[in-house]
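Q: Give me a protein?
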Amino acid sequence: MTWKKSFYSVPLKHVGATVDLRITSTVLEVYLQSQRLSSHPIFPSTMVNQYQTNDADIPPERKYRAWDANRLRGWAHCIGPNTVEVIDKIFISAPVPEQGINPALAVLRLSSKYGAQRLENACFVALQSRIKSPRYAHLHPILLNRQDEHWKDTALAPVSEESSGYVRGSDYYARKNS
């Protein structure tokens, strides 16, 4: 239902019905004949295109399901073990589990833009570094600069005994002294 360029919900079975409104300075009530269908606080006149939805007006199959640690871990399991470890570290570092939800969501939403495999690789790179609890601020630059792809190439390359360190030859030291 629309009133003053803002949207207010009614129960699904009454969508499209002709209704009556009772409007006070703070409340908008929706009536069908003499039955009140819903009641909403009114948005200020400076706010337009806003939505006000009562939970009772949402059909059960479309109800909002709040994020929690278990649901986020389930999403991480769909991506891979490194992502699960990063999400676990985020929740371990949060003093209260609810404080880990937004950082975990930010990390998991990177899979929408970069793909699940790249996020998994970026989590691997972050876990190999000295970062105690990798977050979006650590993972996003890894993905942005494609370090996850380069790291994968170097991590899988065989290491020979000859290239186990950086050794300077005698010509390096000879130039420095002259």
User: Anything to note?
Assistant: The beta strands are 2-3, 6-8, 20-23, 27-32, 35-41, 51-52. The mean pLDDT is 80.
